[in-house]
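hi!! sorry for the late reply, been swamped w classes. u asked for the two structures so here they r. pasted raw, havent cleaned anything up. first the sequence of the first protein and right below it the tokens
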Amino acid sequence: MPGGNKYNALKWEVENWDPMARAIKTRSARGGDQPRITGGETRRAQSAWPIRRARGLQIVESQALTELGWLVHGFSARLGGESLLDGKRALNLGFTDWDDRGRVAANRAKFAAALPSGEMPLVTLRQFHSDVIHVAADTAAISAEAPRADALTTRTPGLLLGVQTADCVPILLADTRLRVVAAIHAGWRGTLARIAVKALGRMRMEFGTRPRDVVAAIGPAIGRCCYEVGPEVAQAFAAQFPGAADWFDGPFEQLAHGEEPLWLPWLTMMPPGHVPPPPRVQLDLRACNRWQLIDAGVPQTQIGVSDLCTACRTDVLFSYRREGAQTGRMMAVIGIRGEK
């Protein structure tokens, strides 16, 4: 990382701008490429985040939530659906422009059938990177048009709450005392707006949830290794969180405090067309959301974080950052089992 002046920041970027060098450096820092989701993970990762296979699908689960017999949950993966993407069948669960709505509906039905939930209607949202939380009161409240929000919560049995992601952070919360659940979609804007903490607060206001009774599962999302952001994001996080530097790699201090180098070609001693791009940093959204939950009172021993990176693992997950608009959407779901 560069020192505290503009020349050192410029020198750091010139020496580190090569994309291949950065990719090698990133892989080395995280211990090499991740193995396939087929049992190659460490035993600790397997026990905390098992992969369940049902009806030809792979479903990532949080062991901590699985142990709560009164709820059902799961994080979908890419493989095994009715959609066609790059000539392969894919489980796209979002109504994207490139996919047929009938296939998406079939994918959602297949995913729901693969969960041990029985007949539970799926409640989804029209997400827009906000801090809006919707309370799903009962099955009668389910409308044809999904509400605009980025988090759902309920204490009503028989509802399956779902949020869609393709890099953003999916967070599932469960109040083990009062049996309240929540599903949260946290991109960088939602994370900056503390949507996870606000969802926890809404659970407390509506149902009496205490943070110390909550178990949280932060699912597969784009990792620190792959999520590059510019100075506007670094500055926004620095303004909101005193310890934001812990969640960034790269010249964070320079970008966060507006000390951007002067990108003049003659300063780099390089010919036109070979000037390095403006400096960027890499952000760990999962770590930021974990810190927010701990700061809100959720015990850190009750927060599980998947280390699966969507951008690294496009063989089994969807990534908008890596693949662009021609990619699918995954879904994280949680619900309270209905009365038998």
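now the second protein. again sequence first, tokens right under
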Amino acid sequence: MDDAFVRLQSLSSQMSLEHGEEICFVTGKDYPFSSTANAPTTEHYPDKTGGCGNQDIFVHPAVLSNGQRIKLLKTLLSSACERDCYYCPFRAGRDTRRATFQPEEFARLFMALATKGIAEGMFLSSGMVGGGIRTQDKLLDTADILRHKLGFRGYLHLKIMPGAERAQVERAMTLADRVSVNLEAPNSQRLSKLAPHKQFIEELLQPLKWVDEIRRTQPRLSSSSTAGHPIAGYQRHWPSSVTQFVAGGAGESDLELLTATDYLYRLLGLRRAYFSRFNPIPNTPLENQPPTPPIREQRLYQASFLLRDYGFDLEELPFEADGRLPVQNDPKQAWAQVNLVERPVEVNRAERHELLRVPGIGLKGAEAILRVRRQAKLRDLSALRALGILVGRAAPFLLLDGKRAVYQPALF
């Protein structure tokens, strides 16, 4: 068993490259960056309970879309890989330690962790050996053993491999709470600079299209449905879908990344796009390329939330001439400085979509304003502050009962 934990440690230690459900605290409360918002992080903690042969098992504190907090094991089934992606520590030919589990072996190891309370859910991916179809079968077999043989009913996020077949995608959707396909780049041209043997349309985008098609065309069915019909998702609803981009690895602009993100949100029903800033890995073709600054990753997340939750169109985002987002201000603040300084928003009359354009007013804040003003007019910033509005950010762009809001920050 000690050997199994050593292998698990090796496989899970590099999973900070895969953003997902981890808890993260990021400044800017008018965006859903908080401990209750599925925001990404590269932080992890080792769980040292003494029940794992004194090995560090990398379990991430995570929050699900319903607000539930769990301990999430993020790991690979195998770090052996036949693909030579330029940015990846597990690329073919790189001198690094490899480890592999068979489906039954891994499923039982995870259940041992779950029984001890070390892990409550899992994000499972894999290096690819023998093609995407064969690798996907191993992931599916692992999930099937967990669900139907060992009775695991907790959270499961399954990776869909490049080149997986439609039937495999559908099977994954009947086993998992979330499925994901890493696009890595916003288009074929950029992908060729990161992963020259991956096919953007056929291998990566197509499975995401199948996920959307299955959700739209196949009804939700209960477990008592007629034999031969698939159960629509393990929880009797189809799972959510997400993707990840490597930000800065292929010379792409923010405009390119967010154009792809906007398409995925609008047309493929994607729940979330993750952005993993490029960091060079020694002994890879991109080892001498500079890392992407953390602020760029943060700005991409902020802009993606404006597209998904705040009613912004891609054309409204404040891109600079080179297609990059401004670094000095977040995109909502930059938009407001151009559009709202001379046309401030009247808090007592604005529609929800207008309130959401104001920096410092988030989704919950807008709802609170709409609720409270049905009873009385809002005439001062203290009333907004009581509703959780970040008045220091919002005040320059607001009218309160026809008057400019005046904000004086505390001296001490």
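hope this helps!! also noticed smth abt the second:
The chain is about 35% helix and 15% strand.
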